[in-house]
Amino acid sequence: MAVTVPVQIAPMELGDIGAIQEIERLSFRTPWPSYAFEQELTSNRLARYVVARAGTAVVGFGGLWLMVDEAHITTFAVHPEWRRQGIGRRMLVSLIESALALGAARMTLEVRAGNADAQRLYAELGFAEAGRRVAYYTDDGEDAMIMTTPLLRSPRMARALWAARRRIAGGEMGDGR
Amino acid sequence: MIIALESASTDPSLALATADGGLIAEDGWSGGHGQGRELLPRLLALLAAAGRPLDGATAVAVGIGPGSFTGLRVGMSLAKGLAFGLGLPIVGVPSLQGWLDAEPDARAAIARAGAHDAFVLVRGAAEPAIVAEDALPAGARTDLVAAPTELAAAFALRGARSPVHAAAAIARLAADRLRAGAAGDDLRTLEPRYLRLPRGLDRPPLEPIRWL
Question: Is the dihedral of CA B171, B176, B179, B182 positive or negative?
């Protein structure tokens, strides 16, 4: 599908949860229940969640928790029909900017060991494999790869962010291969 | 004064009672999934409203489940923190026993055990059973039972009454035990009785992380 409407990254709102549940269902074997998102939005002061909107439609979402000085990406997905258009990159840059604004020193996340597309995006933004949680996912026993960034205020992260923003400004899609 | 906490469901409760179990003040509410956040502020408000300082406490009573995994962890953590910090005995009381004691006419206490099952303690039975929603005992949907508001709606328990007075009953049951000369439970080893762990926890512990 070609992008025909501009995609905006914005804070997640309660009214987005229905659309998010659909993306969850299409993306994850074990989706979060809707009340988990409601709770994150209404009562978790250490959480930040964003959505990608194409017009009025929610086509992606992601979020993080600030734990002391580390921002942990808790969930991240783009609607299958909207993938490979750079939407994930824009959401991830937005989350990194949130982490910086919250004063986080580093970021971390878990990703399925077999999810090469997601790992490529994270690697582009400075995340590198730090370890594995063996048989982490309860639905099929897949390993989780732990990926972390260097210090967010390091020159390496600044370069990665600068390059990603340039690709976003240039309208580049997907992973640019 | 006994401080009692019961947080095995989305309808938690708190009570202050005399050493012989007489009720001083109580609070109970339908808290949804945020029940854990409310326990401590509500306890402090209850103490203030009753004009009772925290250091007037002589024992802590806590519902030990089975029921909500996170609710029980939060309640147990708070109870242990109070007992440890104030140097008080702690008494764990089976939650559903407390629910039945709080509703003398209820035939059973029914708590959520995951998406499709319930913990059911029939009055007179020694232990709760894990029962599927479609295998609830006869009368569970029509007779008076003690069950949280959320579960009553989800499982169509039309005679359900919320266990909002359960903490007061747990204080009474704990008082009985302490008056009988029991020393209370071991603060180091007391833990919730889950009977069944949530999905993802009901498996052997994960291997240690393999750091690169």
Answer: negative
Q: Mutate which of A28, A132, A148 to disrupt the B interface (most B C-beta within 10 Å)?
A: A132
pLDDT tens digits, B15-49:
999 999 999 999 999 987 777 789 999 999 999 99
At A70 the three-state DSSP class reads: strand
Tallying the residues shown for chain B, one arrives at 212
| A13 part of the active site | no
- In whole angstroms, how far apart are CA B118 and each of A3, A115, B29, B126, B197? 48, 37, 20, 16, 13
pLDDT in tens, A93-106: 999 999 999 999 99
- Stretch A45-51: mean pLDDT: 95
Residue A159 to residue B86: CA distance in whole angstroms: 53
pLDDT tens-place string over residues A19-36: 999 999 999 998 998 889
The answer to whether B116 faces chain A, any CB pair under 8 Å, is: no
Domain ranges of chain A: 7-169
Residues from chain B that touch A119, judged by Cβ atoms under 8 A, are: none
The side-by-side arrangement of strands in the sheet containing B210-211 is A7-11, A47-54, A57-67, A70-78, A106-112, A144-148, A128-133, B210-211
Residues of chain B contacting A43 with CB distance shorter than 8 Å? 34, 37
Please determine, looking at this structure, whether the domain spanning A7-169 carries the CATH number 3.20.20.140: no
A122 is catalytic: yes
Q: Which of A89, A98, A87 is nearest to A64 (CA)?
A: A98
Q: What is the domain count for chain B?
A: 1
Asked if the Cβ–Cβ distance from A134 to B37 is below 8 Å, we say no
Q: What is the CATH number of the domain that holds B70?
A: 3.30.420.40
Domain carrying residue B23:
2-179
Q: Is B207 a domain residue?
A: no
Which residues in chain B touch residue A145, judged by CB atoms under 8 angstroms apart?
none
- Residue B210: which of A43, A131, A138 has the nearest Cβ? A131
CA distance B200 to chain A (A): 6
Please check whether residue B202 lies inside any domain of the structure: no
Here the ipTM equals 0.79
Kindly write down the DSSP assignment for every residue of B121-143, as one continuous string: EETT-SS-EEEEGGGPPTTTTTS
Please state, in angstroms and rounded to a whole number, the distance separating the CA atoms of residues B43 and B3: 9
How does residue A4 score in pLDDT terms, banded at 50, 70 and 90? low
